[in-house]
């Protein structure tokens, strides 16, 4: 069985997929409002990553820099990474105690597909910050962490 | 079946790798992905890696061994009329047509070390700096030739074209000591346990 191969018969194995994502992250993405990189350059399995999102314009998040931790286990990308905010944030899909992005409240993780990437997660979270139910929520002080 | 439409070339190469393995090299496809190989390379004799068993992983991308040529579609769809420019292409200023840089998208074998190794052309993530894996890739190369080249790279480190700057510097300033470190790492990480 090819899990989540999206119609194509060629499945890029986990490690080569993460090497691709690493190279893409190093080159820089789009306008630079989302970015990510590996935490431990020695970890041959490339498990632990830090992501950054710059808060979108015309929201309470504007100008803030949010740090997130992404963890890609052995079963990535068949399964999504675990994602949590390191910077404190008040957002409907984020657990208030732990900063964990709750898959049940965040569609991209709930309906995960193999082709999705860490970039997709960060980009979608940025969009979520600008959604009507999030853009005006009162926020914790800047520079505080979970 | 996931692998039912595996290209004939890959099947042939795999059969030959299994039936006539190159000395000091073994490569076998994983059960659930016939394009993904587990590889072992023995450290060449008289190199700092002698006695080591090095594990690698190798993947044949969808484009392997070569991507379809990136020519304007009108030419590609009519291979017998290569020199006859269709009417609707007349007047195109070809100098203004963006031709993408094709390196890294042309069917190169992807391969890296999983065993830690002290070598100027191999980085911490096991990625290998070898021209045939990049701009010198040719569809005539095969899994076997690539693995033989990697084995040869272990015998002949090239600190002038480094991937790991620190290791290359070590190699150039004090080769004897760098070789000792490479031997030490071979004992520590590549003992085959």
TrEMBL record, chain A:
One Pfam family in the UniProt entry: UQ_con
Domain UBC core intervals: 13-146
UniProt xrefs under InterPro entries: UBC, UBQ-conjugating_enzyme/RWD
GO terms of biological process kind: DNA damage tolerance; protein K63-linked ubiquitination
GO cellular component labels: nucleus; ubiquitin conjugating enzyme complex
PANTHER family xref list: UBIQUITIN-CONJUGATING ENZYME E2
Subunit relationships: Heterodimer with UBC35 or UBC36.
Protein known as: UBC core domain-containing protein
Record lineage: Eukaryota, Viridiplantae, Streptophyta, Embryophyta, Tracheophyta
TrEMBL record, chain B:
Keyword list, A-Z: ATP-binding, Nucleotide-binding, Transferase, Ubl conjugation pathway
Catalytic residues as annotated in Swiss-Prot or TrEMBL: 129 (glycyl thioester intermediate)
Molecular functions (GO terms): ATP binding; transferase activity
Domain UBC core residues, every copy: 5-191
Entries under Pfam families matching the protein: UQ_con
Alphabetized SUPFAM superfamilies for the sequence: UBC-like
Family affiliation: Belongs to the ubiquitin-conjugating enzyme family.
Keyword Nucleotide-binding: yes
Protein name per the record: UBC core domain-containing protein
């Amino acid at each position: 069985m090819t899990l989540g191969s999206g119609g194509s018969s060629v499945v890029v194995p986990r490690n080569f997929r993460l090497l691709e994502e690493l190279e893409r992250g190093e080159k820089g993405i789009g306008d630079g409002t989302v970015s990510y990189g590996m935490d431990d350059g020695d970890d041959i399995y490339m498990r632990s990553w830090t992501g950054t999102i710059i808060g979108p314009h015309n929201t309470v998040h504007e100008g803030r820099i949010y740090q997130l931790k992404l963890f890609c286990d052995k079963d990535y990308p068949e399964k999504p990474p675990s994602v949590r905010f390191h910077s404190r944030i008040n957002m409907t899909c984020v657990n208030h105690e732990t900063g964990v992005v709750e898959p049940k409240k965040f569609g991209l993780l709930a309906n995960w597909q193999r082709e999705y990437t860490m970039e997709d997660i960060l980009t979608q979270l940025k969009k979520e910050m600008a959604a009507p139910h999030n853009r005006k929520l009162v926020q914790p002080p800047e520079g505080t962490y979970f | 079946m996931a692998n039912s439409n595996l290209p004939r070339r890959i099947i042939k190469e795999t059969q030959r790798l299994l039936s006539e393995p190159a000395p000091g090299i073994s490569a076998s496809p994983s059960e659930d992905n016939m394009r993904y190989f587990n590889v072992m390379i023995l450290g060449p004799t008289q190199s700092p890696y002698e006695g080591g068993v090095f594990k690698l992983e190798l993947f044949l991308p969808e484009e392997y061994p070569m991507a379809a040529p990136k020519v304007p579609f009108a030419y590609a769809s009519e291979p017998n009329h290569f020199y006859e420019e269709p009417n609707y292409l007349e007047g195109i200023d070809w100098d203004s047509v963006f031709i993408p840089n094709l390196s890294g998208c042309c069917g190169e074998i992807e391969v890296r070390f999983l065993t830690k190794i002290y070598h100027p052309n191999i980085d911490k993530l096991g990625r290998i700096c070898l021209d045939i894996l990049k701009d010198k890739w040719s569809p005539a190369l095969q899994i076997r030739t690539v693995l033989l080249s990697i084995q040869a790279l272990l015998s002949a480190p090239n600190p002038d074209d480094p991937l790991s700057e620190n290791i290359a510097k070590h190699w150039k300033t004090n080769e004897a000591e760098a070789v000792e470190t490479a031997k030490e790492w071979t004992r520590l990480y590549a003992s085959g346990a």
